[in-house]
């Protein structure tokens, strides 16, 4: 397992210092949007905590017995929990099993370490079971919760964890890393389109053609060259989150162009001339209201609220067209 990603250096330094000061909390909450590499960071940190001979930067030595067992997915003091199936909750039996592991005596390292991936997917019973352990921790244990939507976690659980935020990575380190992974690609644009999530940007090129087609159709809709119903019919099987994210980027660009003609911070720089013209026909207050509505709908989608997708697309497309009336 390679080291952390370059845009995670600050978070690593913070936790390493806590380790040096013997002030590592009983529970951590790694929070930030998907595509930031939070699980990879958690695994690197768990391995370092369990390592018998960490280096001066707090990284695992990769050679001791603990590191070798960890690499073989056979470390007796490490546990990893996640939903058994995609879209399914983490159940109470999984958390109960984890608790039994944590209260047992360590076999090799000083700590028992557990990672709960997609912690927000815990059902109510599982969350309540974990809460008791967080309130009354036993022994030397570290629980690392990972959440892309931490607001979906119970406030009582969030309050008992030391939160470590992973903010959008739009800095040079992320750009340079991505440029190495995608040579000869418009990596800076991919990074903007992925909202600063480098791992999402890696796979973004696969959907770029679909995105360009969607943007072109939305521009035609704004010019009254299409009807919302006709366009919505094309997206019955589309990914709602991808569609909403792309639409939010488009609206954000129009707001920026209403306030300034600078294209530096646009999500869709390749459409600058068309967006510039369109921005002149848009009503700024409507764009702001529409963006708020899109954010709300996107949050509801993230929360797993079921929608009639056809009606959802028709509604947001009517609202989009209304911004230019």
SSE arrangement:
Layout: H1 9-20, E1 27-31, H2 38-50, H3 65-71, E2 78-81, H4 92-103, E3 112-116, H5 124-135, E4 141-147, H6 155-158, E5 162-165, H7 172-181, H8 187-193, H9 198-204, H10 208-222, H11 228-232, H12 240-259, H13 272-281, H14 284-302, H15 309-322
Helix pairs in contact: 4-5, 8-9, 10-12, 12-13, 12-14, 14-15
Task: Provide a brief overview of the structure.
By secondary structure, this protein is an alpha/beta fold. The chain is built from 15 helices and five strands.
Task: Give a structural overview.
- There is one protein chain.
- Helices cover 51% and strands 8% of the residues.
- The protein is α/β, with parallel strands linked by helices.
- It has two domains: 6-165, 3-Layer(aba) Sandwich (Rossmann fold), CATH 3.40.50.300; 172-322, no CATH class.
- A five-stranded parallel sheet has the order 2-3-4-1-5, with helices on both faces.
- Helix 5 (124-135) links the parallel strand 3 and strand 4 (141-147).
- Helix 12 (240-259) runs antiparallel to helix 14 (284-302).
- The N and C termini lie far apart (54 Å).
Task: State the main characteristics.
325 residues, Rossmann fold, 15 helices, 2 domains, alpha/beta, five-stranded parallel sheet
Helical proportion, percent range? 40-55%
Query: How many β-strand runs?
Result: 5
Order of helices and strands: HEHHEHEHEHEHHHHHHHHH
CATH-defined fold name of the largest domain:
Rossmann fold
